[in-house]
Amino acid sequence: MGGAKGWKFRIDVISLMSMTPYKLDSRAWQESWDRQQEAYMPDREHRISAMLDVVDAVAPEAPGDPIKILDLAGGTGSISLRALARFDRVGITLLDLDPALLAIAGASLGERATLVPADLRDPGWAARLPHRAYDAVLTATALHWLAPQRLTELYAELPAVLRPGGVFVNADHMPDDALPGLSRRLVARADARREGRYATGAVPSWRDWWDLAAVDPVLAPLVEERHRIYSEPHSPEWLPPAAWHLEALRAAGFAETGVVWRGGTDAAVAGVTPA
After folding, report:
1. Are the beta carbons of 79 and 48 closer than 8 angstroms?
2. For the segment 235-274, what is each residue's pLDDT rounded down to a tens digit?
3. Residue 58 belongs to what H/E stretch?
4. CATH: 3.40.50.150, 3.40.960.10, 2.40.128.110, 1.10.287.3510. Which one for 3-272?
5. pLDDT tens-place string over residues 36-93
6. Considering the entire predicted model, what is its pTM?
7. What does the angle CA 155 – CA 160 – CA 162 come to, to the nearest 5 degrees?
8. What backbone torsions phi and psi does residue 91 show, to the nearest 5 degrees?
9. Counting runs of H as helices and runs of E as strands, what totals does the chain give?
10. Can you tell me the distance from the alpha carbon of 274 to that of 39, in angstroms, rounded to the nearest whole number?
11. Count of C-beta atoms within a 10 Å radius of residue 95
């Protein structure tokens, strides 16, 4: 989403939030989101920490220069919040399309980050960014909703928003294609454990979380707006192995590519732009 349409989206989100006298309890919603996400990814904190280790490795060496991070499809700002806690000097841009998640991110991050509403399905998404030459572009468990052709195109668009020697990291479900049988068993084991946690009420499911958001005084109109935005069916989840991502990143022009973290059938792949 770009241009005037993108700005209208931003104004609509602000207007919807101002329609209620209630204040969004961003801390509670962040905690609830984290618990819901950890049901899918028990090692979620480990993967985000590994991603930030990569950022630390490419951080500007000049004293006082901020680390510029683009949190791509950043949702509620989970990565951004952890980057702000870890680094003394960091400038955050968070890009997402979902108005409810952006509202939580905005309430949590405040003036510490720039929020950009944009649709990654639109090739013009990068025109919405406040600047280019980011040190790092980070994303986790989000790009699997893009169709294969669009994800390939997105990877080719990323070098233009990174500085020379900058890094892109994508953490998601990326099974090892050399272990198909074992991967299936690992996924089945994780699914059973997650369903057990749902059954005991230990964590909310994805659907339960959105049902709660839909009755929150602040988030309810934003959830309705979300339904309008996503009224057309999106692409089904597409979860290729890490090898596919690495090949696509190489084809996109990244000088170095590789796996920087793995946990079971999940992985984080990285691409470094030519220096």
Report:
1. yes
2. 778 899 999 999 999 999 999 999 999 999 999 999 999 9
3. helix 44-58
4. 3.40.50.150
5. 999 999 999 999 999 999 999 999 988 788 999 999 999 999 999 999 999 999 999 9
6. 0.90
7. 90
8. -115, 125
9. 10, 7
10. 37
11. 23
